[in-house]
Amino acid sequence: MSRPVPTSQDARRQAERLPEGGLSDRSLAIVLVVPAALLLLLFSVYPFIQAAFDSFFSITLSGTGTWVGLDNYRNVFQDARIRDAFFRSIWWTVANVVVQAGLGLAIALVLNQKLRGRDLARGLVLFPYMVPAVSVALLFRYTFNDITGIATYLMQKLPWLERPPLFLADPDIAMWTVIAVNCWKYTPFMTIILLARLQTVPRDLYEAARIDGASAWQMFRDITFPWLRPVFLIALLLRTIWTINDFDVIYLLAFGGPLNATTTLPIEIRRLAFGQQDLGLASALAVLMAIFIAVVSFIYLRMYQRSEDRLM
Amino acid sequence: MARDDSVSISTVRGEPTREGRFVHAREDRSQKVRRFLARIGNYALLLFFVLLMASPLLWMFISSIKSNQESTAWPPTLWPKSPSLGAYRDLFNVSDFGTYLRNSAIVSVAATLGVLVISLCAAYAMSRFRFRLLRGLGEISLFAYMIPPILLLVPVARIVTNIGLANNLLALVLLYTATQLPFGLWILRSYINGIAVDLEQAAMVDGATRFRAFRDVVVPQTLPGIISTAVFTFNACWSEYLFASTLMTSPSRLTLSPGLTLLLDQTGVYSWSMLMAGSVVVVLPVIVLFIIVQKGLVSGMGEGAVKG
Description:
The complex is a heterodimer.
Chain A: H1 8-17, H2 25-54, E1 57-58, E2 66-67, H3 71-78, H4 80-111, H5 118-126, H6 133-143, H7 150-157, H8 171-198, H9 203-211, H10 216-245, H11 248-254, H12 265-275, H13 279-311
Antiparallel strand pairs in A: 1-2
Chain B: H1 18-23, H2 25-64, H3 86-94, H4 97-128, H5 132-146, H6 149-162, H7 169-193, H8 198-205, H9 210-221, H10 223-239, H11 242-247, H12 256-264, H13 272-307
Helix pairs in contact in B: 2-13, 3-13, 4-7, 4-10, 4-12, 5-7, 7-10, 8-9, 10-13, 12-13
């Protein structure tokens, strides 16, 4: 306490001189990161390399494989089931991301108003994001049940419908049902991110615009949205990656059926590996999917950089 | 007039211009009416969104306090005739739900602690030291974050078998710790970057080792970041299905997600009210966590967004 307060430069120099029984910076750094590095190597990097390796072999789950070169990759492009699953994945991802972005933005704008009961409403609206996939699946399998589901019952009351839709049993409808449920669960993610950003918009920009006689729509277009855009793009990127990869909600709701109507790429990959026991083909498809996601992410990040530049 | 300075979607035409306020008193009144209508519109939208998002959860709860027969009654009853917790009691007595709950709790708590300790250490090193090794770790963790989980499923199952952890909850703990690490690293590193170095340097001048300075000075200041990391990690582990259903095969090792799915396949045995009771029990802990951190979550993410 009695010694004079050192400047940070002095402190740095002194700290470097005085390890006092502690480790040197270099060994401390190594000790601190080794557990993280080991876990990532063992459960991400090594399995990734293993999967890439498997994709060049004809191999089952248990046996050893024979080298087949690029045959698995060729088969990926010729297999009609895989092609269907790919387009279903695109459909699933685009529909989900578009609805979640639009609805998430609308909800964030309303929740950002100074309305009574706003805090409670915020909590209620954001809850679905925290609901585990298995609960979501159980709840909506019950709700959309053909025989006793409340949704089926309510649909029956609609005068213009001849009979209620078979939400999860009709191949033409099942995909829309799982998309709607997934949007219910994940729209709050968009709302959380956008709401946080909305609270940081510089107030004086609005003041200046109001004095200039700008309408609310003009203020949204010229102030609010450009301010949101970088965060919006990052949120879109995360949602896109997670939605392509998503397995739990869609699988637990419909198990890929009926008649494969909800079989997206991850579900098809799991079927190839465990059902068809064709590990090589499954790995090749998974590797291609990873590359596809990397390309999409790269495009997003380029757009992100451009929107950040425009804001500066 | 300008008290409500946030932009709304439905007050599009209701905004007064400065001229309008001074020149036409009559128009001012009609604008007041419009603003009032816009406000009503905003409340209507708010109510609509709240109903849209919250009503399914409310239905889950209502169904869980119905009797077994009533949960499949036609037409469905909006409120149970005699609300009871019977479904909850049956669920724990008849099924292995208690085991699933215990397994999930063990795995989620252990993995969350693992992520916190390991990512705090690594995040500190990455924030304060400049070595090539550390930059490499940042790149690996970004890469790990981008890999589709489905790609890792089979190789990970093989690794788990090879290191003798098949059907062992420890396998899930290790795996979840690894898969949630990149997120923890990312959040905590940006937090530690925002903490000034002066305090820990002062502690070191006073004779603390670097590690003690990290533990006693930096970690307490990182608390908000630690809490949000803990909540997200716990939630991810608590709800994970893909790996849990593949790696754990014996019934006594199942966690909640595969366990409840197993019960779902036997709706002949387990009534919908029991399944809804199970869902409520699964949802409850994460909702409670969410309520605790909700306020800090929204504003905390805003700060992070400003810093970029």
